[in-house]
C-alpha cells in the first residue's frame, strides 16, 4: 500500500498527533473506507522513516477513539461502525480549536469584533459555495 | 491485573566519570527501555562518548554502574549487543573482507547474508584495506559489522558521521528496522533532525549532567513558547525567573519569549497582566527544546 | 577469539616462507659461482652485540654441530618474537572496542592472541632450522653435521630465548598506546648493553646490579661459543638456565596480561 500519509518530524507538533489527524481526515473524507486495512506499524515506520513506537502510539489512540480496530496477527482496519462519524467529530474539534485560537489572536492584535466577523465572512465566501459545500479551488 | 515492568535494556545508575579534576559525566541516571530508540543529545564534550565507554566497560567509571536487562556487564552479553564507537575501531592493515571474517569467527550469530546486503547497500569495496577507505566508508564498514549480528542492543556513537545524506537515511532505516524487530538502539548524534525522526526517547546532556529526558513526542507536546510583544520595552517578570516550569526567558526590546513546560497557564496569566499588545503560544521542536535546555535561564539576545 | 591474530600471523608466515623459498632458489642458482663446497663454510647470523655472535666454521675435515642451526633459528625466532611481541599494544590505539566487545573475557582474548604469536614464533624457528639444513644440503655438507653434546640443551635454550624475548616485549609494551615499536627496538639495545656490561667485570655494586638485571635479560642466556671457555650464563647448571628462561617468558606474559586487562580507552 503506498504511503498516503506524510508527517513532518521537525515541527513542534508531535508526529503521532499528525498521524492521528491524517488518519481521521482520511476516514472522514472516505479516502479510507470502513474495513480497509491500514499499513502495519513496521511498514509505516519504515515508509516514513519514523520511530515504530510513535506509529504504535498513534494506532493505539485511534483505536481508543474508535476510528480503527486492531486484531492481533491480522493488522489494523478502519472500524466498520460509524468510524467516519467519529472521525468527523474529532476533526470538527480540531477545526474548532484552530478557529478559536485564530480569533483569540486577532483579538490580541487589537481587531474589533466587527472586523473579525468581516474577515470570517470573506473566508467563507472564498472557500465555500453558497449551498454550504466546499468550493472548487480558485486559481488566484 | 498486575503490570509487569520489564527491566530496562540498559539501566544507567548514578554514573560518574572524572579524569583528574575534570568531571566528564556527573551522576547520570537514565533508563533505556527495551525496544526503544534512545537518542543522546549534547554538544561536544557533553559526555556522550564517555558515557558509552563507561557502560560498555571500555573505561572504568569513577562511581555508578550500568545494568543490562537487570544484569551487570559480562562478555556473554556481547553475543547480542553491538557497539560502534565514534572513531571506527578498525584495523588499518586488514581489508573489509578480513573484518567480516573476524566477526564471523567471533560471533555465533553473525549473519553473512545480512552483512553482504549491508555491504551492497553502502557500496563498500571489501578488498580495500581499511587505511585506504574514506571516513564515510569506515563508518559504513563499522555499521555493517554492528548490524550484521542482528543484536538485541545496539550502542552507536555518532553513527552518521562522515556519511553522505543518502547513507545517513540508510542508517536511520537500519535503526528503525532493528527497533521494529524488537531491538533496543542507543545512539548519540549531533544532528537533531535524526533524533527527531528515529528516536522515541531522548536525553540531553550538557557538560556531563543530564538536563532533560523524556519521550520526544511528550516533550514536544509539553514544551511551548509563550511569545508576547509590548508597547515599550518588555518588562522583567520576577515570577518567571523563579517558576520551575520556565526553562528560559529571552527578551529583546519589545519582545519577550518564555520557554515553558506544561500548560504554562501561570506564565500566560503573568504576562497578560502586564498588558501586552499581542501574545501567542508556539510549539517547540526538538531543536528549540535542546537549545533551551543547554542555554542559560536568562538570555538577552 | 584469536582469529584476528591468526590472520595477521598467517600473512607473516606466508611472507616468511616465500622469502626462504626465494633465498633457497637464489642459492641454488648461485651455487656454481660460489666455488667448491667443501672449503670453509661460513654460516653467519648477524646480531651485533658484544660477545653474541653465532658463527661456525667448518673445513673439509671439521665437523660442525647441530647447535649452530638452533642458534641461528633462535635469533631469527627472537626477532620475530620482538616484532609480534607488540600484538597487545597494537590493540590499544583505538581498537580496544573491537577487542573488548567480544564474547570472551579480556584474559582469554589476550591469552589466545599471545598463544597464536608463540605458535608462530615456534614455526619460524622450525622453518629456519629446515632452511639452514637445506642450505647445508645444497653445499653437500650435511655429512659434516653432528649432534653435539649440548645440542638438546641448545635446542631448548634457543627456543626459550625466543619465548622469553616475546614475554619481555609484551610486558614492556602491553599498556602502551603508542611508541610500542620504539620501546621494543630500544629494549634490544639495552639488553645487548647489559650483556656486554656483564662480561666487563664491573666493580662491586655496579657489577652486582648488572648481574641482577641480567637474570631477567634473555640475551644473557643466549651466548654461544664453541670454544670451551666458561660460559657467561647467569646460572651454573643448564637446568636452572632453561628454567629461568621459561620463567621470564611466563612472567612477561603474565605482566602483559595484567596490564592490558586494566587499560582504559
Q: How is this structure best described in words?
A:
The complex is a heterotrimer of chains A (about 140), B (about 300) and C (about 260). Chain A has two domains: about 1-100, Arc Repressor Mutant, subunit A, CATH 1.10.10; about 110-140. Chain A contains five helices and two strands; from the N terminus they run αααββαα. Chain A has helices spanning about 15-30, 40-50, 50-65, 85-110, 115-125; strands spanning about 70, 75-80. A two-stranded antiparallel sheet of chain A has the order 1-2. Chain A is elongated, with a radius of gyration of 18 Å. Chain B has about 300 residues and is an alpha/beta fold. Chain B contains ten helices and 15 strands. Chain B has a six-stranded mixed β-sheet with strand order 6-7-8-3-9-10, sandwiched between helices. Chain B has a five-stranded mixed β-sheet with strand order 14-11-13-12-15, sandwiched between helices. In chain B, α3 (about 110-120) packs antiparallel against α4 (about 135-150). The relative contact order of chain B is 0.14. With about 260 residues, chain C is mainly alpha-helical. Chain C has helices at about 5-35, 65-85, 85-90, 95-100, 105-140, 150-175, 180-200, 205-215, 240-260, and strands spanning about 40-45, 55-60, 65, 145. Chain C is globular, with a radius of gyration of 20 Å. The two termini of chain C are about 20 Å apart. The chains are: A mainly alpha (about 140), B alpha/beta (about 300), C mainly alpha (about 260). Chains in contact: A-B, B-C. The interface of A and B includes residues 13 and 16 of A.
